[in-house]
Amino acid sequence: MKIKRLELMGFKSFPDKTVLHFQEGITGVVGPNGCGKSNIVDAIRWVMGEMSAKHLRGKSMEDVIFSGTTQRNPMGMASVTMVFSTEDGRVPSAYAHFSEVAISRRLYRSGESEYYINQTLCRLRDIHDLFLGTGVGMRAYSIIEQGRIGQVISAKPEERRLILEEAA
Amino acid sequence: MKIKRLELMGFKSFPDKTVLHFQEGITGVVGPNGCGKSNIVDAIRWVMGEMSAKHLRGKSMEDVIFSGTTQRNPMGMASVTMVFSTEDGRVPSAYAHFSEVAISRRLYRSGESEYYINQTLCRLRDIHDLFLGTGVGMRAYSIIEQGRIGQVISAKPEERRLILEEAA
Amino acid sequence: TKKHFQESFNKINELFQQVFPQLFKGGSAELRLTDPENILESGVDIVAQPPGKRLQNVNLLSGGEKALTAISLVFAIFLLKPSPFCLLDEVDAPLDDANIDRFNEMVRSLTDRSQFILITHNKRTMEMADILYGVTMEQAGVSKMVSVELKAAS
Amino acid sequence: TKKHFQESFNKINELFQQVFPQLFKGGSAELRLTDPENILESGVDIVAQPPGKRLQNVNLLSGGEKALTAISLVFAIFLLKPSPFCLLDEVDAPLDDANIDRFNEMVRSLTDRSQFILITHNKRTMEMADILYGVTMEQAGVSKMVSVELKAAS
Ligand SMILES: Nc1ncnc2c1ncn2[C@@H]1O[C@H](COP(=O)(O)OP(=O)(O)OP(=O)(O)O)[C@@H](O)[C@H]1O
Ligand SMILES: Nc1ncnc2c1ncn2[C@@H]1O[C@H](COP(=O)(O)OP(=O)(O)OP(=O)(O)O)[C@@H](O)[C@H]1O
Ligand SMILES: [Mg+2]
Ligand SMILES: [Mg+2]
Question: What's the DSSP call for residue D60?
Answer without folding.
Answer: G
